[in-house]
Amino acid sequence: MWLQVAVQADEAHAETLSEALMDAGALSVSIDDADAGTPDEVPQFGEPGHPAQPLWQHSRVVALFDRDVELAVALAEAAAQAGLDAVPPFTVEEVAEQDWVRLTQSQFDPIEIDPRLWIVPSWHVAPNPDAINIEMDPGLAFGTGSHPTTRLCLQWVLDNIPAGCSVLDYGCGSGILAIAAAKVGAGKVVGIDIDERALESTRDNAERNGVSIEVVHSGTPVTARYDRVIANILTNPLCVLAPAIAACVADGGKLVLSGVLEPQAEQVIAAYAPYIALKVGATHEGWVRLEGQR
Ligand SMILES: C[S@@+](CC[C@H](N)C(=O)[O-])C[C@H]1O[C@@H](n2cnc3c(N)ncnc32)[C@H](O)[C@@H]1O
C-alpha cells in the first residue's frame, strides 16, 4: 500500500510544487487537471500528440509516498520550498501497488526526442526499431525524457558526441543522458550524482540498455578531464558547482548545461565566465540550454 496525495495548485506553482514534493520524499509526481475526471483521462502535456503546456487553470499535483511517510512534515516542507504560505488543500488515498503501476504505465507512451532517438518504456514496442531506442521506465530518479531540460540535452547529445570521446554526465539521475551518449558512440562514459538512488538507477538502466557507464558519487573528487561534460541540474547548484564542473572539461572540450529557466541564463553564464564562455544554444518551454567550449 502507498499513499497517493493530490494537492491543489495554480498553474504558476504546479511545477515548483511538483519538484518540491520529490525533494520532500515523494516516489513519483505527476501534474493533472483538477477539474477533470480520473488521472488516466487527462492529456499528457509535452509528449507526442499532446499540447506542449497544460491548458487547464486549476492543476492538481499528484504525489505517491511510502505509507510510512510523515505526511504533514513532507507537505509543509514542499509548500515552503515552493514559496507557498501554507499547504494547499489536498486529499489522501491509499493505493495498492498494482493499481499504481497500472496507472503509471498508462501515463507513459514512447517519447520521440528526434526521429533518430526515442525513449521507450519497457512495456511498449519501439515505434521505430531503426532509431536509437533508450528503454527507460519511470522510477525513483529524475529523467524519463518528458522534461524539457532532458529533451534539450538529448538533442545536443545527438549531434555533439564524436565516436570514442569521453563524456561526463554531472547529475545523472536515471542516467538517460549518459546512456544516450554511450549509444551515440561515446567511449568512456561516467555519471555522477549526489543521490545514491540515482546512481543505482543509472547502473540498472545502463545494464538494461546494454551500455557501460561508470557511476560515481559526487562526494568523490573528480580528477579526470572529459571531452564532453553535460550537467542538467538547476541554476543554484550549477552556479555553486561552476569551478568544479568547469574543471572537468578537457582542453578543447565542450560543456552543456540545462535546468536553467530563461530569466536565470545570465546568472549562470556569469558564474561560468571565469572558466568557459557559455551562450544560449536552444530554448524549450521556458528552459534554456547553455553551451560552450574550453
Ligand atoms: C534534473 S535531474 C537531471 C537528471 C538527468 N541528467 C536528466 O537530464 O534527465 C538533476 C540531477 O542532479 C542531481 N544533483 C543535484 N545536485 C547535485 C550535486 N550537487 N552534485 C551531483 N548531482 C546533483 C540530482 O540528484 C538529480 O539526479
Identify the bound ligands. Answer: S-adenosylmethionine
Secondary structure tally: strands:
14
Instruction: Give the second-level CATH assignment, the architecture of the largest domain.
Output: 3-Layer(aba) Sandwich
Q: What global shape is seen?
A: globular
Task: Report the β-strand fraction as a percent range.
Answer: 25-35%
* CATH fold topology of the largest domain: Rossmann fold
Low-pLDDT regions = 36-57
Largest sheet strand order: 10-9-8-11-12-14-13
Structural class: alpha/beta
Helical segment count = 9
CATH C-level class of the largest domain = Alpha Beta
- Kindly report the name of the CATH homologous superfamily of the largest domain: Vaccinia Virus protein VP39
Please give a quick description of this structure.
With 294 residues, the chain is α/β, with parallel strands linked by helices.
